[in-house]
Amino acid sequence: KNEVEQSPQNLTAQEGEFITINCSYSVGISALHWLQQHPGGGIVSLFMLSSGKKKHGRLIATINIQEKHSSLHITASHPRDSAVYICAVGALNYGGATNKLIFGTGTLLAVQP
Amino acid sequence: DTAVSQTPKYLVTQMGNDKSIKCEQNLGHDTMYWYKQDSKKFLKIMFSYNNKELIINETVPNRFSPKSPDKAHLNLHINSLELGDSAVYFCASSPTMDSLSGREQYFGPGTRLTVT
Prior knowledge:
The complex is a heterodimer of chains A (113) and B (116). Chain A is an all-beta fold and 113 residues long.
């Protein structure tokens, strides 16, 4: 079992829909990251959070440290949001190292017009 | 203006060859990383360096040897390439390796390695 689990693995939505992607983790973390990988392959960091909630435009990320769970929400989804969304955690003192990222398997989102 | 750059973007080579991938960041960051993304798009850390010092070596075959000539560069040399090395390799950097601050990482565009 992966230390970082995402759901769903695949998601198809209609333009304008509200989208939620979930991430659960089983290790102690310093922070949780949400990343976006476009079809062209580049990876962009969307959020890094260690508590509460963050918002950038139509994207909202929340984290519940006690429940070891985070969600990424997209409001008013658009076809340009189509990408793979990856949850990653900065593992605390993992193998004696710090700030090591452990990745989820990603969620492939397709937003249809 | 590119923050984290990698060369080459594509690399096609035969089994048994030795190849290098270069990474440079102009962000003034102390920490750099190499990640491997397999055919299922799963990312996994390979190495991290902090100020030219190796911090993480994540059970990677010793055919893979990272080299950090200065804190702005982290190169990856691969000896005796195997079919299973085919993947996309991403370089990344972050301001520090401080776990308490959990700093954001900036990724390069990736290098698609194909071993035939």
